[in-house]
Amino acid sequence: MVDTDSRRKSRPAGPGDVDAYLRSLPPDQRKALESLRKTIRAAASTAVEGFSYGLPAFRLEGRPLVCYQASRNHCSFYPMSPAVIQAHTRELKGYDQSKGTIRFTPSKPLPASLIRKLVRARMVELRKPKA
What we know:
Elements: H1 4-9, H2 15-23, H3 27-43, E1 48-52, E2 55-60, E3 63-70, E4 75-78, H4 82-87, E5 96-97, E6 102-104, H5 112-127
Antiparallel strand pairs: 1-2, 2-3, 3-4, 4-6, 5-6
Helix pairs in contact: 3-5
């Protein structure tokens, strides 16, 4: 497992660094997060990949879209919006959730269709004009 504290100290942004991060993970977590990454990339083709808050992330129009990471006992997906998580609570039943995090295990990953919904909802939220 990668030491998360050392990843956060200085991190140049870029897909190559995300590749290195993923290579450092145990095979089951790597596979789960590579699948998550691929689904995010497909749902948000104009998003820019790199790191945000020390986590592998996608940015849309310069703003954080979503992040993800591996932890000792699970993987996490961060839609960066409590409202997006709350709007999909029913579909997230069976996954551990908190205000801004959805936790899953490599043996029970988030379905690609749900990831696409969450990413698209977050994109809509980011593009909404502020009142």
